[in-house]
Amino acid sequence: MNLKKTLLAAAVALTATGAQAATELTVYTALEADQLKSYAKAFESANPDVKIRWVRDSTGIITARLLAEKDNPQADAVLGLAATSLLVLKGEGMLQPYKPAGVEQLSTQFVDKDETPSWIGMDAWVASVCYNRIEAEKHDLPMPTSWKDLTKPVYQGHLVMPNPNSSGTGYLDVASWLQTFGEEDGWKFMDDLHQNIDRYTHSGSKPCKMAAAGETPIGISFAYRGAKLINKGAPIDLAFPSEGLGWDMEAAAIIKGSDKMDAAKTLMDWAVTKDANTLYNGSYAVVAMPGVAKPVPNYPSDIADRMIDNDFEWAAVNRSRILKEWQQRYDGKSEPKN
């Protein structure tokens, strides 16, 4: 009997020790809400001694929060934030350089160029236009084939797009138009586009969700969300404008000053694995590890060929200036912030 009590006490002590050993890692993210559970489950299954505590919001809000916390960091790591945002944080000296085990297996365009990278890419999300066939027919709106099409008078009041100050999708749109058309013509294009905008949302996926629900005929959004809604039966088509598609990378990094550095490095090591990249491919057609991606239903097989030659450094360096200019010109049509 005493032996049984001793073994039971030992088992209880071992369980308590294991529970105490689990490290809670605060991870800031702009991943879609429906991705968080599966990402945490996959990581924690492979690393049961670390538990993720997500802090989620849209890209612009998470970026602003991180910058506001610069002198008193609250996050240990970032997983699923735009690479352009991480380049801003890197410029502020907020990222802890770390070379994850196996990072050499990733495509070089998905890895920070420094010898010891400050961030690594996960996948690419790509701009697209969500077009509701039923609502468009009611208003006699043709399927757009170019960005310039969206400035035509026929679309007045029928377009919704994300606000770039709060949405990473919105910012990749604006940054890509300025690169594609040049700054002068890019702002002229946005002036004309603004005449047709019904509202600017604070979420990159919301314009496509609105189109799928019949709340707007056309939403400027990103291809993953559109493909997922089509797969669920939404009466929308995806348009991929002929001038080329803006895009950004979801990326991961360690926040400098974290007191959970070992756990944060474990997250980075997992983020570059084949298993993680396979998980990313469930949502995105382009992932960081070559040879992993399989076709995504309702996603064009040549999506990579449609993506512009994006200058991430330029987009990061000019981010504050561009967002300020955009806000001064167009913010009057933005939805109220929650």
Automatic annotation (TrEMBL):
Pfam families assigned to the protein according to its UniProt record, in alphabetical order: SBP_bac_6 (PF13343)
GO CC terms in record: outer membrane-bounded periplasmic space
GO biological process assignments: thiamine transport
Residues annotated for Fe cation binding in this entry: 224
GO MF term list: metal ion binding; thiamine binding; thiamine pyrophosphate binding
CDD domains named in the record: PBP2_Fbp_like_1
InterPro entries, sorted: ABC_2-AEP-bd (IPR017663), Ferric-bd (IPR026045)
Top-level taxon: Bacteria
UniProt key word Glycoprotein: no
Keywords from the UniProt entry: Iron, Metal-binding, Signal
Signal peptide interval: 1-21
Alphabetical list of NCBIfam families matching this protein: phnS2 (TIGR03261)
PANTHER family in alphabetical order: ABC TRANSPORTER SUBSTRATE-BINDING PROTEIN, THIAMINE-BINDING PERIPLASMIC PROTEIN-RELATED
Record-given protein name: Iron(III) transport system substrate-binding protein
Organism: Marinobacterium stanieri
Species lineage: Bacteria, Pseudomonadati, Pseudomonadota, Gammaproteobacteria, Oceanospirillales
